Amino acid sequence: MSLAVVVLGLTLWVGIVHLPVWLPPVTPAIIAAQPLPGQGPHRVFGYATMTNPAIRLAVLGRVTPAQEARLAGFRRDGRDMRPDQDAMLSGMVFAVDDRGLLRLDRYERLGARYRRDSVTLADGSRAWVYRLIRDD
Question: Ranges for the Gamma-glutamylcyclotransferase AIG2-like domain (predicted)?
Answer without folding.
Answer: 44-132
